[in-house]
C-alpha cells in the first residue's frame, strides 16, 4: 500500500502542470484530512513533500504522558516501547513518529484520491478560466476536431473552444482537422467548467487581422477609427495616419493590394473597403458611401441625419446590393442617411436609341405599338411621357410607366 501511494503521487506530480506550491498545498490538505480521520481531529502533524521526486513523508507529534486520555495528541511510554522507539525520552516530551502510509486503509486512500482529483479539476478549471479570460480580444490558432450542426469545436492547447454558428462566416465551410484562426470573444463560468466562445465574425477579429498584416497599425502610426461589417460579405474600415508623411489607405492596401488581400483571403473573400477618416461628417459620409456622384449632401447634426441627393441612375450604386453599402456607411459614420432620388432630364442623355434596336428589351409587340404611334426613338418615348403613352390604345398608365422605367434603365447601364 505504501509503494502504491508513493507511485500514484509520483505519477500525478509528473502529469499535472499545476504550480508546485499550489499542488503541494492541495496534497497537504488531503493527507491532513486522512490523518485526522485516522488519529482524531486534535492530531498535531506536519507533512514533508518532495515535489520534484514525488515523495511524501508524514510525521505525527504527541505529548508523552502516563495515562493517555486523548490518543490524537498523547502517547504513553508503553506505546512508545511497543513501537520500538525508546530513545531516553521523559514525561512531558514531544514524541515525533513517522507515519507509515500503509496505516491508511484502502478506503481512506480512495477517499484521498477522489478528493485530490476533485480539487485538482477545480483548480485546473479556474486556471483555464483565468488564462482565457486574459486572452479575450486576442487571436488564437486551433484545430477543428468536431463539426456539429450549430457550432464547431476547436482544440487549443488541449482545451475545448466553441465557435457558435452566429460567430462563423456565413458561407465558410469547416472541416475536421483544419487549422483555424479566431478571436477569443467571451469566457463563461459554468458548473461543468469554463465555456470559451471564439468568433470570426466579430469586428474585433477584423481589427486584429489588420494589426497582424499592417505593421504601421500595430506600431500605432496608423489608427483604425471605425469598422462596419457584414461578416463574410463586405466591410468598411476607416483609418487615420498619425504621421503626415504616411498615406493611411495606401499603407493598409499595400502595393498591388497585397496587404488587404491577405485579410480578404482569411475572411473567405469578404470585400473590404479601406477609407480615410475625417472629422468633418460630410466628408466622412461621402467617403463612406464611396461615390463621387453625390449632387448635394445636407446634414442635421442634432438629429444625426444626412440627406443625400443623387441622380436616379446612381442610386443603385450608392445603396449597394441589398442595401449593403448604405447600411455599412450608416453604421460606420453613426448617421442615418436618407437617399433623395432626382430624376435626370431626358434631354441630358447624349445619345438617342432607335426603337427597332430595343425589341429584345421591350418586346416586339410594344415596339410595334410605339412605332405605329409615330415614335421612332427612345428620347421620343421619354418626351411623350407616361400620360402621353397611356393614351395609346393597348397601353395603360402602369404599362406606360414600366416602358419609361426600362428605357431609363438602359441609359443608366450605358452611363
Global mean pLDDT: 84
The name of the CATH topology of the largest domain is N Utilization Substance Protein A, Chain:P, domain 4
**Shape assignment:** rod-shaped
Discrete helix count: 15
Describe this protein's structure.
This protein has helices spanning 2-15, 20-39, 77-83, 106-133, 203-213, 215-218, 248-253, 258-266, 281-289, 312-319, 324-333, 359-362, 364-372, 378-390, 397-414; strands spanning 44-50, 55-64, 74-75, 94-99, 139-147, 151-156, 159-164, 179-188, 195-199, 222-230, 234-241, 271-276, 294-300, 305-311, 336-342. The chain is an alpha/beta fold. It has five domains: 2-130, N Utilization Substance Protein A, Chain:P, domain 4 (2-Layer Sandwich), CATH 3.30.1480.10; 135-201, Nucleic acid-binding proteins (OB fold (Dihydrolipoamide Acetyltransferase, E2P)), CATH 2.40.50; 204-272, GMP Synthetase, Chain A, domain 3; 278-343, 2-Layer Sandwich (GMP Synthetase, Chain A, domain 3), CATH 3.30.300; 346-414, DNA polymerase, domain 1 (Orthogonal Bundle). The strands form four sheets. Strands 5-6-7-9-8 form a five-stranded mixed barrel. Strands 1, 2, 3 and 4 form a four-stranded mixed β-sheet that branches. Strands 10-11-12 form a three-stranded mixed β-sheet, sandwiched between helices. Helix 2 (20-39) packs antiparallel against helix 4, helix 5 runs antiparallel to helix 8 and helix 14 (378-390) packs antiparallel against helix 15 (397-414). The radius of gyration is 39 Å and the shape is rod-shaped. It starts with a helix and ends with a helix.
Amino acid at each position: 500500500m505504501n509503494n502504491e501511494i508513493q507511485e500514484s503521487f509520483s505519477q500525478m506530480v509528473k502529469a499535472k502542470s499545476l504550480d508546485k506550491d499550489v499542488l503541494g498545498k492541495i496534497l497537504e490538505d488531503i493527507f491532513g484530512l486522512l490523518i485526522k480521520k485516522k488519529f482524531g481531529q486534535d492530531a498535531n502533524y506536519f507533512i514533508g513533500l518532495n515535489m520534484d521526486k514525488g515523495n511524501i513523508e508524514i510525521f505525527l507529534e504527541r505529548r508523552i504522558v502516563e495515562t493517555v486520555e486523548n490518543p490524537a495528541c498523547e502517547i504513553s511510554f508503553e506505546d512508545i516501547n511497543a513501537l520500538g522507539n525508546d530513545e531516553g525520552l521523559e514525561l512531558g516530551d514531544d514524541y515525533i513518529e513517522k507515519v507509515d502510509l500503509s496505516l491508511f486503509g484502502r478506503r481512506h486512500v480512495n477517499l484521498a484520491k477522489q478528493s485530490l482529483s476533485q480539487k485538482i479539476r477545480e483548480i485546473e478549471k479556474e486556471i483555464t478560466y483565468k488564462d482565457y479570460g486574459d486572452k479575450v480580444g486576442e487571436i488564437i490558432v486551433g484545430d477543428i476536431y468536431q463539426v456539429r450542426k450549430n457550432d464547431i469545436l476547436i482544440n487549443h492547447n488541449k482545451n475545448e473552444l466553441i465557435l457558435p454558428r452566429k460567430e462563423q462566416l456565413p458561407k465558410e465551410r469547416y472541416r475536421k482537422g483544419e487549422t483555424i484562426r479566431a478571436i477569443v470573444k467571451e469566457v463563461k463560468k459554468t458548473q461543468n467548467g469554463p465555456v470559451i466562445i471564439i468568433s470570426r465574425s466579430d469586428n474585433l477579429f477584423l481589427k486584429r487581422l489588420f494589426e497582424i498584416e499592417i505593421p504601421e497599425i500595430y506600431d500605432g502610426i496608423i489608427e483604425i477609427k471605425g469598422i462596419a461589417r457584414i461578416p463574410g460579405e463586405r466591410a468598411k474600415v476607416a483609418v487615420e495616419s498619425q504621421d503626415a508623411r504616411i498615406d493611411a489607405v495606401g499603407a493598409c492596401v499595400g502595393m498591388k493590394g497585397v496587404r488587404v488581400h491577405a485579410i480578404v483571403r482569411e475572411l473567405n473573400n469578404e470585400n473590404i473597403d479601406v477609407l480615410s477618416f475625417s472629422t468633418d461628417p460630410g466628408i466622412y459620409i461621402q467617403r463612406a458611401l464611396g461615390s463621387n456622384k453625390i449632387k448635394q449632401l445636407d446634414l442635421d447634426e442634432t438629429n444625426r441625419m444626412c440627406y443625400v441627393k443623387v441622380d436616379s441612375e446612381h442610386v443603385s450604386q450608392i445603396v449597394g446590393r441589398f442595401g449593403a453599402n448604405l447600411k455599412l456607411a450608416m453604421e460606420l459614420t453613426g448617421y442615418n442617411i436618407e437617399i433623395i432620388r432626382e430624376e435626370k432630364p431626358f434631354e441630358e442623355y447624349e445619345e438617342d436609341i432607335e426603337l427597332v434596336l430595343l425589341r429584345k428589351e421591350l418586346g416586339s409587340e410594344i415596339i410595334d405599338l410605339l412605332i405605329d404611334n409615330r415614335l421612332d426613338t427612345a428620347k421620343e418615348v421619354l418626351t411623350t411621357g407616361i400620360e402621353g403613352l397611356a393614351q395609346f390604345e393597348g397601353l395603360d398608365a402602369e404599362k406606360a410607366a414600366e416602358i419609361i422605367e426600362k428605357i431609363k434603365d438602359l441609359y443608366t447601364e450605358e452611363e
